[in-house]
Amino acid sequence: MFRRSPLLSLKMFLFFGAAISSMVVSFLPLYFQNNGLSKSAIGMFFALGTAVGLFAQPVWGFMSDKFKTVKKIIIVVLIGILIGILWIFQLSSLAWLFAAGSFFFFFFTALNPLSDNLAKRIADEEKVSFGSIRSWSSFGFAIISLASGFYFNKMGVGSLAIPMIIVAGMAFLLSFTLKDANSGAKKVNLKEVGQFFKNRTLLTFFLLSFFIFLTHRVNDSFISLYLFEIGGNEMLVGWLWFIGVLSEAILFITSFLWFRSESPIKYIIIAGFLFTIRWTMVGFVTEPSVLLSIQVMHGLCFAIMYMGAIEYLYNALPVEMQATGHMVFMGIAFSITNIIGSSVGGFIFDTFSGSTLYFSLAVCSFIGTVGFILFSMKEKTQKKVEVAEC
User: What predicted TM-score, i.e. pTM, was given to this entire model?
Assistant: First the structure.
């Protein structure tokens, strides 16, 4: 059935692939806290793991472009994820835990960008909305987060290993049913990758994206702990992620109504302002119910930002460089931000408070938004000059 329906196969794969992420983001920090790790140690674990992911993501993207396959690279990545999960839950030594985390993140950090790259290409081939396919990742994250919240509230977060193995195993089995995507006729080489890093416009785009996505990644790492700080529990953590990612899924699946590919930067600017408002509101929260209400803004912020950023990136890159470019972007927007955000965020959280952390995020997202306004103005000026010269 899946082989005859490539879109159905891809949607189910995205669902379970995102389910892995939901457990890593929502409950792995709580698992470590339950086992006696400090907030700073938890932050360092994720920072060290994603430091490896920063190197790994461009490597996996280059391998995908070089060998003209996304599907086979995804299968290899999932094998590594399964081994990493089994290894992490066997350990009690902090040093070995960091080593296992680095191994796990070498593969895990590649899964979502490779999956999104495949989804974007298949969407273009099938002439359907990328957001309508990408929404299944959000549904997977939301539904599994909610179900996990009920499960761990009853069984305890110490039982995290079994659910993680089950969802990773499902994603692995579904990966064999995926349709591979067209990667262009030309094979990419290292010289072309080098030219990619000399493009000043793209580098500026990456830098400005960093400021806004940094706030998103810090929130991913510490929102569960912040909820506990103001009186929440495991069940509310599940609801927190369910509400946020369900709103994201709704935005993605309805993107054909509101998203227009002609001017992606304006969506990034809108999202930047929304992020600034959201973090300011979270900084004033003292009740779990209020935090859950504000979480509705997650979909507005992330879906609008992500759709705008991916559309701009794919418009700027040739098809044979899209996997590499996508992975470099994800490395900057998600891995570097996670390294810095987890370390600095953990320090701010431990030394000051969760409120101070979120007020800092509001300032950071505002800086990125102003940068994108200037970036958009410069691009419009350049286009007018090009038209005048023609």
Answer: 0.81
